Amino acid sequence: MTAPLDRRTDYRVTFVVLCVGVASFSLLQSMVNPVLPTIQEALGTDQTTVTWVLTAYLVSASVFTPIIGRIGDKVGKERMLVVALGALAVGSLLAAVATSVSVMIAARAIQGIGGGVLPLTFGIIRDEFPREKVASAIGTAAALLAVGGGVGLVIAGPLVDALSYHWLFWIPMIMTTVAAVAAAIWVPESPERTPGRINVATALLMSSWLVALLVAVSQGHHWGWDSPRVIGLFVAAAVLLPVWVIAETRSSDPLVDMRMMRIPTVWTVNLVALLFGFGMYSSFAFLPQFLQTPEVAGYGFGATVTESGLLLLPQTVASFIGGVAAGRLAARVGSKMLLVFGAGLTAFGMFGLAFFHDEVWMILVETTFLGLAFGLAFAAMSNLVVAAVPQSQTGVASGMNTNIRTVGGAIGSAVIATVVTSQLQASGLPTESGYSHGFLLLGITGAAATIVAILVPVVRATTHVVPGPQAEYEAEPAERAQV
Questions:
Q1: 277, 405 contact by CB (below 8 A)
Q2: What share of the chain is helix, strand, coil (3-state, %, to 5)?
């Protein structure tokens, strides 16, 4: 029996701690991208090797996000939150003092363990917050992922100019250390636990196909899409993925319950997440490059890293506004409607970038629309998934949704990189049509996400009937998260 809510830590204190953790993780996702050439020069390595600074973080976060979320469901979300924040702090410290690229890559892999902060945050909110506050809290926490990504692009340049790239890691280290100590003191332990053991075999299978897929996608542009290494990794992923699904289906104690993944709301929202991640993370990667392209190329604005970040500041502000407003809007129109609107607005913004990008004001308007779309859609996706699953499955369900969005981002960034660089000028810069075609593809992806979002069923009943040995799969009422 758990302590009454009024004897537990005030949920507002808990929320502040959770937001610091999510913000730190999201900053680490994006701050490194704009200054990768600086890190390459400082550590004396080459372009191909330094890309592993991004790949190691991506792969580690993708593997550990659902695993840490599931362990939290079983052994306690608060203690696993401390572990995830501790990993972020240790990895950031190691990255800040790294003197070689191998140490930096190892540090980024440790940081990726902190991806578990996201599903644990959603689970703790669902456990601890008053029912009427759950939707807005989840919306704000989810939007922080998009906001942090934008803030990382904005502050990376000024930080490096004023101090050094080491401070890209010192600041998150300080934030996560404070958050870890605060979590240990003030965040209450989970009242909900899932019985059973952690299925190590299926965890290894899931990790194997994710590593094979993400390494192939991330390094394909450098190794060559037709290279034996890339083809071999894709084949391995294609074989291991169905093996993992079969193993999870047959397991009496699965890491990821496939019956949960087959809930109509869950799988449709996950598909939206894949498509949405394809567009959002690609825009984080390629919009700064477009803005920094010298005007001699016939397009672009010749912005510095700092200037390009400031040009994207309205997008970041709009993401925050969208995330904060999402909770109240969801109570009025429903999270599904927000998701449809956010996905549609993403398509609108991407199509705008494809056809109208000659003036700074055009970029500002279009990216502001994108920022609002990201904030609304992130909040809506998280609320829909959390409301559709049992409380004991919150961590792994939201972890898989986050993970699928990350996989979509990795695929999108690789595809857009290939499209943008398919035609190069004599100077070695991409042609304007490369960026136009890339943004057009992202617009099409956004339109596809909108169509899928329209098909997302709204959870209204307290029981899901799912094919499988246990036909009755209980979930909390939809009004729990005000879907």
A1: yes
A2: 80, 0, 20
Name the one residue in this structure whose structure tokens are 């922080």. Answer: 144
Quick: pLDDT tens for 293-325: 888 888 888 888 788 888 888 888 888 888 778
pLDDT at residue 195 in the model: 65
* Listed residue (259, 213, 257) closest to 236, CA to CA: 213
SS3 1: coil
Quickly count: other Cβ atoms within 10 Å of residue 130's Cβ.
9
Place of tokens 């990504």: 149
156 close to 305: Cβ distance less than 8 angstroms: yes
Whether residue 69 contacts residue 399, with contact meaning beta carbons closer than 8 Å, is answered with: yes
Asked if residue 146 lies in contact with residue 375, where contact means CB atoms within 8 angstroms, the answer is yes
pTM of the predicted model as reported, rounded to 2 decimal places: 0.80
Measure the CA–CA gap between 91 and 28, rounded to whole angstroms: 10
Rounded Cα gap, residues 372 and 130, in angstroms: 27
**Residues 87-129: tens digit of each pLDDT:** 999 999 999 999 888 999 999 999 988 888 888 888 888 888 8
8 A C-beta contact, residue 385 and residue 398: yes
What is the rounded distance in angstroms from the CA atom of residue 360 to the CA atom of residue 371?
16
- Residue 474 dihedral angles phi and psi, to the nearest 5°: -85, 145
| 8 Å CB contact between 398 and 379 | no
**CB 156 within 8 Å of CB 309:** yes
**CB neighbours of residue 235 within 10 Å:** 12
Residue the block writes with tokens 């290894």: 204
**Tokens linked to 256:** 């990821």
- Rounded CA-CA distance 309/149 in Å is 11
DSSP alpha helix (H) spans, 334-459:
335-355, 360-388, 394-420, 432-454
Q: Please, are residues 425 and 106 in contact by the beta-carbon 8 Å criterion?
A: no
Closest C-alpha among 11, 155, 55 to residue 414 = 55
- How buried is 297 (Cβ within 10 angstroms: 0-12 exposed, 13-18 middle, 19+ buried)? middle
CB-side exposure of 201: number of CA atoms within 13 Å? Answer: 12
End-to-end CA distance of the chain: 28
Number of Cβ within 10 Å of residue 264's Cβ equals: 15
The rounded distance, in Å, linking the Cα atoms of 228 and 224 is 9
CA 423 and chain centroid, separation? 30
Other beta carbons within 10 angstroms of residue 147's beta carbon come to 29
202, 257, 267, 388, 466 from 262: Cα distances, Å: 18, 9, 6, 11, 7
SS3 472: strand
HEC string of 295-329 equals HHHCCCCCCCHHHHHHHCHHHHHHHHHHHHHHHHH
